Amino acid sequence: MQKSIFIFLSCFFTISCANRKTEITQIKVFYLPQGTTTDIPIQCNQLYPSLFEEDLMKKVISSQITQDQIGNRLNQLSDSDEDIDMDVRMRIMISYKNRSNDTLCLGEYFGTVLNGKPKNDDRELRDLIKGLIY
What phi, psi does 13 have (nearest 5°)? Predict the structure, then answer.
């Protein structure tokens, strides 16, 4: 009986840990040039090519190592209690192999929103992404 329970718990633990790490298949970054100013703050859902014709740039991150680094930083983001009114400069679309996509929005210097929920800023994540696009 104890052996059966041990095997069941071992299988459950292995499956649950395997499901936490979801493979990223693609990361697209839409961004404005550094130092871009606007009359009103840009919301995440406004950062589309049709609204910023020539100014909006796009980069696809295809390196699996870099995708894993970004994924690890995303997993460490913690919820923020602050209601932020951020000015979005980077919109990151993260596609996964076996689950729905994530949308990460970042301000140039502060502000982090993941799937519409404010998160505490992660300087390493922002610096990693900025280093890839600028």
Answer: -65, -45
Q: Rounded to two decimals, what is the model's pTM?
A: 0.81
> Which stretch of DSSP H or E encloses residue 129?
helix 123-133
Q: What DSSP designation does 101 have?
A: -
**d(Cα 131, Cα 111) in Å, to the nearest integer?**
17
d(CA 74, CA 57): 22
Q: Which helix (H) or strand (E) holds 125?
A: helix 123-133
pLDDT tens for 48-95 read 777 777 889 999 999 999 999 999 999 999 999 987 788 999 999 999
How far is it, in rounded angstroms, from Cα 37 to Cα 29? 19
- The whole-number average pLDDT for the span 2-10 is 46
Task: Could you list the beta-strand ranges (E) of 4-122.
Answer: 24-31, 57-61, 88-96, 102-107, 112-114, 117-119
Please report, as a single letter, which amino acid is at residue 25: T
